Amino acid sequence: MGVQDTGCLSRVPWGYGLVRSYDGRCHFYLSSKYIRSNFRLKDFNPANVHPYGVMEKLVAQLQTMRYSLGVPIIITSGYRRESNTHGSGLAADIVVPRKTFIQVTQAAYNVGFRRIEVVRRSGTSFWNLMSVGGHIHLDVYDGSGNNTGGTMYDCPSCDGIPCYPWYAWGIQGGWWATSRPNTFYQLMQNLKKNAGYTGYRGC
Ligand SMILES: [Zn+2]
C-alpha cells in the first residue's frame, strides 16, 4: 500500500503533508511538524511537491537509524511522482555526510531495511565518508499485495520476485549491480567483486 491508494493523497490541504500509519489510516499534518524526534514532515518532501505523503514505516525506520548512527541523516529525495516507490511514499534517498557508505548501509540493514541501493560517484569508494557525494536509496516496499503505481508490492515467498528484497551497489550515472539471491551477505560479496555492472535494477 502506498500513500496514493484509496485517494488520501488527493485530500492533502495546502501546507500539509500526509502520513499513512501502519493501520492504513491517513493523517494530515502541517509540513513543519516534527513527526519523529529528528524528522519534520517536510524533510520527506525536499522537492516541495504538492500533494505529498510518506509511509509511517519509512519514517520510523529512518528515526531508528538516526539514533543508531548518532549523526544527521539528510533526505535528498523523498516524495516524487515519477518513481513508483518514491511516488508511493515508500522511499527516501539519503546522505549521511559524517559516515561512510558502508556504515550507513550496515545501519540501514540493521534497522530492518531490505531494499537498499548504494550509489557512489565515480572516482570515490564505498569506504569514503558520504560527504564525497552519492546517495543511498532506501524503501519499505511493504508486502501488502497492493499494486501501487505499476509495482507489485507483494512477496509471498520472495522466489521469482526480483524486486523484493533488493540490494544494489552502483556508480552514479552508470549501470547498477544487484545481488541474487538477495541476501545481505551476497550484497557484501557483490561489493567486494564490484559486481561488474550488469544493468539489473530490481523493479
Ligand atoms: Zn530513490
3D structure, described in words:
Mean pLDDT is 79; it is low at 145-163, 177-181 and 194-203. It is built from three helices and 13 strands. The protein has helices spanning 56-69, 101-110, 184-193, and strands at 16-20, 26-30, 34-36, 39-40, 53-55, 74-77, 91-95, 115-120, 135-139, 147-148, 151-152, 166-171, 176-178. It has a domain at 55-192: Muramoyl-pentapeptide Carboxypeptidase, domain 2, CATH 3.30.1380. With 203 residues, the protein is α+β, with helices and mostly antiparallel strands. The strands form four sheets. It has a six-stranded mixed β-sheet with strand order 6-7-9-8-12-13, with helices on one face. Strand 1 and strand 2 form a beta hairpin. The two termini are 16 Å apart. 17% of the residues lie in helices and 25% in strands. Zinc ion binds next to strand 7.
Shape: globular
CATH topology call of one domain: Muramoyl-pentapeptide Carboxypeptidase, domain 2
Biggest sheet features: 6 strands, mixed
Report how far apart the termini are.
16 Å
SSE run: EEEEEHEEHEEEEEEH
Strand order of the largest sheet: 6-7-9-8-12-13
| Low-confidence runs | 145-163, 177-181, 194-203
Our Rg estimate from Cα atoms comes to 16 Å
Small molecules bound in the structure, each named once: zinc ion
Hey, roughly how much beta strand do the residues contain? Answer: 25-35%
What is the level 1 CATH name of one domain?
Answer: Alpha Beta
Overall mean pLDDT: 79
Report the structural category: alpha+beta
The count of DSSP E runs of length 2 or more, i.e. the number of strands, is 13
- Tell me roughly what share of residues is in helical segments: 10-25%
- Gross CATH architecture of one domain: 2-Layer Sandwich
